[in-house]
Every structure is written in C-alpha cells, then in structure tokens.
C-alpha cells in the first residue's frame, strides 16, 4: 500500500488527469444527452415551422378582365406548377386579346370619318392656297349659292331619307281649290245661295280627309321629318356649335377662317353624322329596308344641338389664328378623365379622349324607344345621359302637316354623350387646336428646352 501511495505521489499529475477523465466521461455523457435533446427539440420545431409554411403557403392566381362589366378571375390556393403554367398562358392570351380589342375600339370610334378638305387640314398644302381652301371648305359646310355649292348637311338629311311635311302654301292652296270646287258643286246641285248645315259639315269632313290624305302621302315618301331648321344653335349657350357655320357673306369680315375653326366644322360634321347614322339604323329593318314615317321608330327630329369641341377659336384683326383654352381643358381636370360633378358618367375631356354632348328632341314610337338607345351604342361611343319624355298632341301636329301613323308616339328630349379617342383625332388636328387641348406639338418641347 505504501508503495502504491508513493507511486501516486510521485505520479500525481498522471493520477489527477486519469481521475478527471474517468469522472468527466459519465458527467459529459449526462450533460451531452441533455444538450442533444434540447438542440434536437429546437431543430424539430424549426423544421416543423418551415414545413407548415410550405404546406400552408398560398398564392393568388389572377386572370385580368378586359371589359368594364367583366369581373377579373382570381383564386388563392397552394402553388402548383401545372396551375401556374395554365394561368400564365391564359394571362398572355388575355393581354394579347386586349391589344386587339383596343384596335377594334379605335376602328369603331373612327369609323369612316375623314377630313372633308385634306389639302387644308391639319396643315395646308401650301401657304398660297390656304385662304382659298378655307373658303372652299366653308362653302361646302354652309353652302354658297354664288359658287353653286350645297351644304353637306343637306346631303346628310337626304342620306337618311329625311324631309319636311307637305309644303304649307301648296297644301293650303290645294285645300282652298277643293273648297271652292265642292262649294260650287253643292250649290249648283241644290239650287241654293248658301250651303245648308249638313252640306257645310260634309264639306268640312271632305277637306279634313284631304288634308290627312296629303300628310299621309308625304309620310310615305320619307323616313323621318327633319331639315336644316332642326339645328338648334343655342342649347349649350356660348358653347353651342354653329351648325351649319355662317356663310362667307354672313361673316361680314374680310378675315379668313382660322384652321381651328375649320377643324371645328369638320368635327361637328362627324358628330352629326354619327347621330344621323344611329337614327337611320333605328329606322331600317334587318333586311336593310328603310321604313317610312308611319312605320319608323324615329319619326321626327324636332331639335338637334351639338356642343362644340372644347376649345374656343377666335381670330385677331391681323388674321392670325388664336385658340384659347376652354374650361374642359383646364389643368387638373384632364389626367383623371372623370369629374363627379360632370353628369351620369362623370366623364370629361382628358388626354385620352374628348367628350362632346348632343341635345336633341325626337318624336318616337313609344314602344320601340329602347331600340334607339341600342342603335346609338351600335353606331359609336355614345351614351344617353338624360331623358325627358312627354305626350305629343298628334292632332295639333297633324294640322301642321306631321302624320305619325296610328301607333302611340312620345316626344323625347335627351342628352347624348359622345366620346372621341385622341389616338386618331390628334393626327388630324391643327397645332393651335392641339395646344388648346394641351396635346404636345412636335418640336415645341425642344424649343422650350433650348430657351
């Protein structure tokens, strides 16, 4: 034992190290087991959390809509390679179709509208011919008997089968001739100096029947009662388009029209053309046969007024065209394109399109009135924003020569909103009109930057 103790004392460092090793092994095992459990549990928690995130992950698949009344499709679900590929394909198809739809809408809005004097607008072919071209366009728009020019609006009325009632003078003369002939016949037959009450009643009925027959005959010759007198130049106060424009003689000034005025005339013509085409569409059946007044949907255009394009065109004494901004082109009103105070649609002129209103009063077949609203929408971007309906005194109108047939008719006073996409109208505008509408003019930005 003494030898062992001596050996231990002489080898104390080895003995202590051995004891430490022997003790640390079980203690380390105990502690390491605890640490391992803690670490394992923590890692398991993290792994489970990550797994649950993946397991519960969802993405929202969206296929956009292309039309205002068409809802977009969307669905939230776990990501799926097949679903992702399908939605991607559908989105690309829809967005591709969107470009086609934009083109179709643009073509629909433009229709066959063209400049009536392409050598004048948007830029005259030559400065030397500018004045003569302006007056030539004015003659076409307003008519000029001295030049043998008829207003293009007369041709527009004829193109939809429009016309007036029987000529009142001719009708009165015809009725008077009939009265005199029948009075003499009755007096000669009775040998009396004056008609009896019975003969007077018979004569009055005969004259009334003749008047009705004449108005019926005229109603069968035309499709709608309308003429140049239908244009109202005051419905929008100072913003009313002058249709047709005043003639060269009526202008009373040697100053030629401005390019802005010329474009305004052409634009007014487009607006009226659309309204007339819609009326003609409503009065034409599926086989392309235009109805006469007695069977037509729109029987009479009593009044038609167009709001001028939202720029005010003035000409200074030096014959330099000056185009001033109108309230529709004010800063802040355009970019959004809507104004809650602007009416039912809240649309206002903006950098994308111009909004021009039309007010008109029509005598229409009461039962078929909705079909006319459809005809407006089928013709161009037009929306009825206001409508007031009233009764028609058919006997009073008949006395004035208007025969509407036997179906019930109503007098409809309405406001129609027309929309004109600048994507095609801008290229036809003179620079002064573009400036008034805050449309960039080629070269203007560079000049301003250099200054």
Structure description:
By secondary structure, this protein is an alpha+beta fold. The chain is built from 14 helices and ten strands. The strands form four sheets. A four-stranded antiparallel β-sheet has the order 5-8-10-9. Strands 1-2 form a two-stranded antiparallel sheet. Helix 6 (168-190) packs antiparallel against helix 7. The relative contact order is 0.10.
Strand-and-helix sequence, N→C? HHEEHHHEHHEHHEEEEHEHEHHH
Main sheet attributes: strand count, strand direction, barrel closure: 4 strands, antiparallel
Taken from the alpha-carbon principal axes, the silhouette is: elongated
Mean pLDDT metric: 83
Number of strands: 10
In DSSP terms (H or I, runs of 4 or more residues), the helix count works out at 14
Supply Rg.
42 Å
How are the strands of the largest sheet arranged? Answer: 5-8-10-9
Number of structural units classed as domains: 3
Terminal Cα separation, in Å?
114 Å
Strand content: 15-25%
Q: What share of the residues lie within helices?
A: 40-55%
